[in-house]
UniProtKB/TrEMBL annotation:
<feature type="transmembrane region" description="Helical">
    <location>
        <begin position="116"/>
        <end position="135"/>
    </location>
</feature>
<keyword id="KW-0472">Membrane</keyword>
<feature type="transmembrane region" description="Helical">
    <location>
        <begin position="504"/>
        <end position="525"/>
    </location>
</feature>
<protein>
    <submittedName>
        <fullName>NACHT domain-containing protein</fullName>
    </submittedName>
</protein>
<feature type="transmembrane region" description="Helical">
    <location>
        <begin position="601"/>
        <end position="620"/>
    </location>
</feature>
<feature type="transmembrane region" description="Helical">
    <location>
        <begin position="449"/>
        <end position="473"/>
    </location>
</feature>
<feature type="region of interest" description="Disordered">
    <location>
        <begin position="872"/>
        <end position="908"/>
    </location>
</feature>
<keyword id="KW-0812">Transmembrane</keyword>
<keyword id="KW-1133">Transmembrane helix</keyword>
<feature type="transmembrane region" description="Helical">
    <location>
        <begin position="750"/>
        <end position="769"/>
    </location>
</feature>
<dbReference type="InterPro" id="IPR027417">
    <property type="entry name" value="P-loop_NTPase"/>
</dbReference>
<feature type="transmembrane region" description="Helical">
    <location>
        <begin position="408"/>
        <end position="429"/>
    </location>
</feature>
<feature type="transmembrane region" description="Helical">
    <location>
        <begin position="573"/>
        <end position="595"/>
    </location>
</feature>
<feature type="transmembrane region" description="Helical">
    <location>
        <begin position="531"/>
        <end position="552"/>
    </location>
</feature>
<feature type="compositionally biased region" description="Basic and acidic residues">
    <location>
        <begin position="892"/>
        <end position="908"/>
    </location>
</feature>
Length: 908
């Protein structure tokens, strides 16, 4: 458009994209191009994160069969006043329906603080709504251009499970940014660093934490988590989900500040019929008519009650999607007399309905396997029971070694590994002797001294390499896998290694590497030629460099971390240890200790050192624990040999969901039902809910100060320190046998069998030891416990903030036992805080391996501790019924009693 007087200036104004710009009035005039401002590094990183999160949860929504063009459920979400902050603080109410997602998201964005809590019963659609809100918010943000003010005003939602957060040991911001860096390692860098901390610290609330599963945290952590969130958020947005019962069980003064609370309402009969009608094919509607008639005629009946939750509606649609299925069986009042019977039936039939055993189609690039419905149900039930025992919902392949079968097989496997290493070393020496002509002199010297020394050197250097890696990286946690850089990208590996360390860490690692290398080369300092000496030193340095560089986390992929990607990285680490690091140490050992005069001995020493170094690196890797767990679970019939492939197929079928590098069951309710109703193939003992031997007979006495005294029979120690010393002792005896020239399998296995037998005897003795008596006293003024001979723990209630039952800790690690713990007020006397106690919880009294108190003890705590008492969640144990959930902090006793009346103490 041209505008101006004749002979005056001409302004050419246009919008859009132009290939050629011509100023017709004056070809020699100036042309001013005003380009939009380029995006900042923070904006680019936020946009890349939004794209990665959207791709991640779009795939999850497809696996769950929700969102997109799928029929949406008309779940109503209404404001809830109880346990919510003042309306003046929240800025208003949020209400809406799940099938009108845009209106619900707009109402959330209009809140001043943009904080929302989603509550509801089991299966009410809390997680599904959180995922759909995340995807809708990301659609709005990605629809704009990078750098637009309207686009950048929308936060980037990041959905995480709260199960892995321990508020007692890690601040929320540190946990959130760490998980973000682990799940999305390839985001564009800001100043050479991962943008997680920069985006979190940026003002304007760039990131929106979407936290799922407050109710899935251990009971003792929930109140602490809410308080930590109030401290960490300040002016940041938040979306959090929880079951209503667990949210109400929080202490009365514990509320999420400036957070609007909405609760899911039951799905009406009309909405349930409409959803099932639109979900089924038109020709399949007649099969559903008996169900529709029953729901309309009896809206308060068991079938209508069961179909009032989104989870059950989804399960009903999936279970009866097959043409030969009969939904009309749900109307059988004799077979399904109660709402719970309908729900249990749908939960039990869900796995067989998706694992049909049919031959999969071959037109897919990676089709699912043919899994038997009975086998799939048994496998998933065993995994669910393991998660219930661990009090978690995260199914991580690198933690499956904590199953009972894997723990039982760990010690024999370690001894067997020592036997195999020694036998291989002996066999290598024998082959070298035969290849060199069968001389007995050099072979005798090699067997008695140098062979065992070379094996020992390999084992020590393997352990030292792992120590070096842990020292170099600030964010490296032992036993936790991560995606690493490929050997084909050395420049990227060096860049990533430097990004994930500090100057002090790098200097510490260098100072650690020098004495290790010196100790490796000290025996030949005066005998080796300079050329061989520097060749050996170069091999040792190269091995350390490869270990550090290619253990660096990968920065190339912006997509979310997956379990299979982590396992592939561990496979690469094992291959690297076996074919790169181990051979480098072997070459160094050969050229340093023996030289070219006796090449046969150099070859033997190099091979044995290679074997020891690679074996140790593989032994302490997450892959070895995964291999042990996979083998033991397969041998006991609790999992297939292709376990990772099975988990992947279960995820594709909608049974599991994928949260970063771990799997979770689609719903905690499904996990609990599979854990209870599925046999693992092993013998299930009928056990009581709590240890009946814990409280002695006539062990309850009233005290003069209005309290109660309880005599508790606490189990003695399990001799764990002695049993922990058995593996190195067994390996030591094997090395002694090797040093003495033992080559027969019987002589090699004798010391291992001896120590294995001693370990079994000690384990049996630990169970046969008599119990010690602990005097637990609970009064309106204090709680104390006296354990002979003179160990007494005492806390006044005025110094206690909370008291609950939780796992005991030893040496900064959780043990397999539980105890009564108290959390002290910050202003408690300094003398109550032991300098050795680094946690916020103090142990009062052990209660054994079950996390449930006798009813009398629990009642005394509720009466005397008042609001300080935090009822624990009663996890399912083998043989017990479903896990009860208190509706508020004051009715735990009634809930517990009703549970025992319904299921009995043995869960029958």
């Amino acid at each position: 458009m041209a505008d101006g007087q004749p002979g005056g200036d001409v302004n050419n104004i246009f919008q859009g994209t132009a290939d050629i710009v011509i100023q017709f009035r004056d070809n020699f005039g100036e042309i001013h191009v005003h380009a939009p401002p380029s995006a900042t590094p923070s904006e680019k990183s936020a946009h890349a994160l939004a794209e990665a999160v959207y791709r991640q949860w779009r795939e999850e929504a497809k696996a769950w069969d929700v969102g997109g063009d799928r029929a949406a459920m008309a779940v109503r979400w209404a404001p809830r006043r109880r346990r919510a902050d003042h309306v003046a603080h929240t800025g208003g109410d949020v209400r809406g329906r799940a099938d009108q997602l845009a209106d619900l998201l707009t109402a959330f964005l209009m809140l001043p603080k943009r904080r929302l809590a989603l509550l509801g019963a089991a299966g009410s659609g809390k997680t599904t709504l959180a995922v759909l809100l995340t995807m809708e918010l990301l659609r709005r943000r990605l629809a704009g251009r990078v750098g637009d003010a309207s686009t950048e005003s929308l936060p980037v939602p990041v959905l995480l499970s709260l199960t892995s957060w321990d508020p007692d040991r890690e601040e929320f911001g540190a946990w959130f940014t760490r998980r973000l860096a682990e799940d999305h390692p390839g985001l564009p860098r800001i100043g050479g660093r991962h943008p997680a901390r920069e985006l979190w610290s940026t003002s304007g609330s760039v990131l929106l934490p979407v936290l799922d599963g407050l109710d899935e945290m251990p009971g003792a952590r929930r109140s602490a988590a809410v308080k930590a969130l109030n401290r960490a958020l300040y002016d940041r947005p938040l979306i959090i989900t929880s079951r209503t019962a667990e949210f109400d069980a929080l202490s009365p003064e514990t509320v999420l500040g400036h957070t609007a609370v909405i609760e899911a309402r039951p799905v009406t009969a009309t909405a349930a019929v409409a959803y099932l009608t639109h979900s089924a094919a038109p020709d399949a509607s007649p099969r559903w008519e008996p169900v529709f008639a029953e729901v309309r005629e009896r809206p308060d009946g068991p079938l209508a009650g069961a179909l009032s939750t989104p989870l059950m509606l989804s399960l009903a649609r999936t279970v009866y999607a097959r043409p030969w299925s009969e939904p009309a069986e749900l109307t059988d009042r004799v077979r399904f007399p109660s709402r719970r019977s309908v729900e249990d039936h749908l939960l039990d039939q869900f796995v067989p309905s998706v694992f049909t055993g049919e031959i999969p189609s071959d037109d897919r690039l990676d089709p699912p396997r043919r899994w038997s419905p009975s086998h799939a149900r048994r496998y998933l039930g065993a995994l669910a029971r393991h998660l219930q025992a661990q009090e978690t919902t995260e199914l991580a392949w690198w933690r499956l070694h904590r199953t009972p079968a894997a723990r039982l097989a760990a010690f024999p496997a370690l001894v067997l590994l020592g036997v195999v290493l020694s036998a291989l070393a002996t066999g290598l020496g024998r082959r070298v002797r035969e290849a060199s002509g069968g001389g007995t002199g050099p072979w005798g010297a090699l067997t008695s001294m140098q062979l065992s020394t070379a094996l020992f050197a390999g084992v020590v250097t393997g352990m030292a390499t792992q120590m070096l890696v842990r020292t170099w990286y600030t964010d490296h946690r032992f036993g936790e896998p991560r995606r690493t850089v490929s050997l084909r990208r050395p420049v990227a590996a060096a860049r990533s290694a430097w990004r994930h360390t500090t100057r002090l860490r790098a200097l510490s690692a260098a100072l650690l590497a020098v004495p290790i290398a010196a100790g490796f080369e000290a025996p030949v300092l005066h005998t080796a030629t300079p050329g061989l000496y520097w060749l050996g030193a170069g091999c040792v340095a190269a091995a350390f460099a490869v270990a550090v560089l290619f253990t660096a986390p990968s920065d190339a992929d912006e997509n979310a971390t997956t379990p299979r990607a982590l396992l592939r990285a561990e496979h690469a680490a094992v291959t690297r240890a076996l074919f790169v690091i181990g051979p480098l140490f072997g070459v160094a050992s050969g050229v340093l200790h023996y030289g070219p005069d006796d090449m046969s001995m150099a070859y033997a020493a190099g091979l044995v050192t290679w074997l020891g170094a690679a074996g140790m690196l593989i032994l302490i890797s997450p892959w070895s624990r995964w291999a042990l767990a996979r083998t033991t679970l397969a041998l006991t019939g609790q999992a297939p040999w292709a376990l990772m492939r099975f988990l992947q197929d279960a995820h594709r079928q909608g049974v599991l969901r994928q949260v970063a590098g771990t799997y979770q069951f689609r719903n905690a309710w499904l996990q609990e039902r599979l854990a209870i109703s599925t046999s693992t193939g092993l013998r299930n003992r009928s056990t009581s809910l709590y240890d009946e031997r814990l409280l002695a007979e006539d062990g309850i006495t009233a005290t003069s100060d209005g309290g109660w005294a309880f005599r508790l029979n606490v189990r003695r120690g399990t001799l764990a320190p002695i049993k922990a010393a058995l593996p190195p002792a067994a390996l030591f005896t094997l090395s002694v046998a090797l040093r003495n020239g033992a080559s027969e399998p019987a002589r090699l296995c004798a010391p291992a069998a001896l120590f294995l037998g001693i370990g079994g005897i000690l384990s049996g003795l630990s169970w046969l030891l008599p119990r010690r008596v602990a005097d637990l006293r609970i009064s309106p003024h204090r709680i104390s416990c006296l354990t002979p001979p003179k160990r007494e723990v005492r806390f006044d209630w005025t110094h206690v903030a909370e008291v609950t039952v939780r796992r005991s800790r030893g040496r900064n690690a959780e043990t397999g036992t539980y105890g009564i713990h108290v959390r002290l007020h910050p202003d408690a006397p300094h003398g109550l805080r032991s300098p050795k106690d680094k946690g916020a919880w103090r142990l009062v009294c052990d209660i054994g391996r079950r996390p449930v108190l006798p009813p009398a003890v629990e009642e005394a705590l509720r009466d005397c501790a008042a609001e300080r008492w935090v009822p624990p969640a009663f996890p399912s144990v083998p043989g017990d019924g479903p896990r009860p959930r208190a509706t508020n902090a004051g009715d735990t006793r009634n809930d517990f009693t009703q549970w025992e009346k319904e299921f009995g103490p043995s869960g029958s």
